[in-house]
Design a protein that fits this description.
By secondary structure, the protein is α/β, with parallel strands linked by helices. 38% of the residues lie in helices and 16% in strands. Helix 3 links the parallel strand 2 and strand 3. It is globular, with a radius of gyration of 16 Å.
């Protein structure tokens, strides 16, 4: 199972750190494009469930199983999604257009091969993918979500587990990331995301 976590593309609520450069409407449109790209990537890797922050007509138009995220913070919401999966699952967000279906398939293979967890570290100190054989609540508790220590703190909680890391990736969170996104000349999917 591939779980995709997505923020609804609501102007003023999506990609807020990019609003000073893009404006609210273009930032929301970028969120929608990143979501479409993440779903294409996930569908190429397996069965997909989309977890959104709220019900929205955009999500209804996608033709994929939709659920609302449940929980007080990101950690609770991710843990709940893993519980819903009832088996090994890979969870991604929509902010990392350089994650590929091969990355997702590799994470799933590693779980089948005996790993308890797989992470894809992000350059900003977080992670862009987490895959778990079984839900593990402690991996999502007492984490400073959005901060530079998310990956490091999660790795500490994985002591005693069999786990592996995928390649380090970057995500689209800050204005300078937009230039990086546009520079991905070889990827038509990235170009579609970069168009505003």
């Amino acid at each position: 199972m591939i779980i995709v976590f997505a923020r609804a593309p609501v102007p003023g609520k999506a990609k807020t750190r990019l609003v000073p450069r893009l404006g609210e409407w273009r930032a929301a449109r970028l969120q929608a494009r990143l979501t479409l790209h993440a779903l294409r990537t996930a569908r190429a890797a397996g069965e997909v469930a989309l977890y959104g922050t709220r019900r929205h007509s955009f999500f209804r138009s996608l033709g994929v199983a939709f659920r609302l995220q449940r929980g007080r913070d990101l950690g609770e919401r991710m843990y709940s999604a893993f519980v819903d999966a009832r088996g090994p699952a890979v969870l991604i967000g929509t902010d990392c257009p350089v994650l590929t279906s091969a990355d997702l398939r590799r994470a799933a293979r590693w779980l089948k091969g005996g790993c308890d967890a797989v992470l894809a570290p992000a350059e900003d100190g977080g992670y862009a993918l987490i895959a778990l054989k079984h839900p593990r609540r402690e991996l999502f508790e007492n984490i400073g979500w959005g901060g530079p220590q998310v990956y490091a703190d999660t790795v500490k909680k994985l002591r005693g587990c069999r786990w592996r890391a995928l390649r380090t990736v970057w995500d689209v969170d800050r204005p300078e990331d937009l230039d990086r996104l546009r520079s991905l000349r070889g990827s038509s999917a990235a170009r579609r995301c970069a168009r505003r």
